[in-house]
Every structure is written in C-alpha cells, then in structure tokens.
Amino acid sequence: MELLKQRIMEEGIVLNNRVLKVDSFLNHQIDPKLFVAMGKEIAARFKDKGIQRIVTIEASGIAVALPVAIEMDVPLVFARKKKSILMTDDVYHSVVYSYTKEENYDVTISKRFLPEGEKVLIVDDFLASGEAAMGLCKLVESAGDTVEGIAIVIEKSFQPGRERLERAGYDVQSLVRIKAFENDRCVFIEE
C-alpha cells in the first residue's frame, strides 16, 4: 500500500535497526483518513472469504480493525490483555508474547462474543515473530471458529512471523512488508 509506505518513509523512525516507531500516525496518534484507506484495502483483500467476525488484540489492533469491520459490516471483538472484573462469564484465553513490551500476556475474549462456527479475520498492526497472531489463532480455533486470514498493517519480513503463520496454514496479507532495517531506514519488499 503506497500511501502507508510513504508515511513510514516520511514519519517512521527506526531505532537501533531493531524497532520501527510509527506513533505519529499509527499507534499513538491516529490518522483517521489513513485508517479508513487501510480498512478498505484489507476488506478488499478478504472480500471473498465470507468473514463473519474480526478479532484483534488491545490496544493498537482496535483502531486498525475498526475500519475493516465497518467496511465488511461485521462485528469486531478484541482480546483483552488483562481480565476485567466485569468479565464474569467464561472466556477463551491464550498466552501471547509482546516483542515491543518484552512480556507475556494472557489474553482473553468472552465466550459470549466469539460464537462457535464463524469465519474469522484476525487484524493487527505489526507482524514480527508471529506470537500475537498465533496466540489469537489458537484462541479463535478453541472457540470452534475458522481463521480465514490474518491481516497485518506492517510486517517485518526479516523476522520469522510470516513463515511461522504460513507453515501453520494461515493466509497472511500485509499492507507493507519490510525486508530490512539498514542505517536506521526501512528497506521495503516491492510486491
């Protein structure tokens, strides 16, 4: 997605050739027009999959997944990183590791909001090791649902996430794929 790639080149900050900081438009301050465009692009890529529900993880995934859900006209449910005291019913859960926070989360979704037998699209902002996406896949499948695809905004293709998810049989679609960080700049995979 050229618009997203342009924003990364203009405003993204690569720290120590390890982490891409895009908080000026993606995960701290949000550019609504960019998010609408990303939602349309993701929805178009999965329009023939019969998606019935979108699943993401709090917090950054919510803003990305909402315009996709609006475009596809399906419900959006997000996995919580901490169980709320208001969450009294049964839950599905999975453990995921956050690369940027360097910690594990026991993520949960109320069984009430993830009915059995649906076709689900997982949406997230970044793909690196694949831990979050794999954890969400396990959670969705434990509900008796089918993961029809995984939509990612920014993929760090030099890390094992895509390979791991594809090896497990998942359809992974990323709006932007980064081949490497060189001299604190992004080198993109041209598709």
Describe the structure concisely for a colleague.
By secondary structure, the chain is an alpha/beta fold.
Structural class: alpha/beta
Distance between the termini: 9 Å
Radius of gyration: 16 Å
* Residues in β-strands, percent: 25-35%
Total strand segments? 10
List keywords for this structure.
single chain, 191 residues, globular
Could you walk me through the main structural features you see in this protein, from its secondary elements to its overall organization?
The protein starts with a helix and ends with a strand. Strands 4-3-7-8-9-10 form a six-stranded mixed β-sheet, sandwiched between helices. The chain is globular and about 50 Å long. It has 191 residues and is of the alpha/beta class. It contains five helices and ten strands, in the order αββαβαββββαβαββ. α2 packs across α3. The model has no long low-confidence stretch (mean pLDDT 91).
Break the fold down into its secondary structure elements and pairings.
Layout lengths: L1 H10 L1 E3 L3 E3 L10 H14 L7 E5 L2 H13 L3 E4 L11 E8 L4 E8 L8 E9 L3 H12 L3 E11 L4 H7 L4 E11 L2 E4 L3
Helix pairs in contact: 2-3
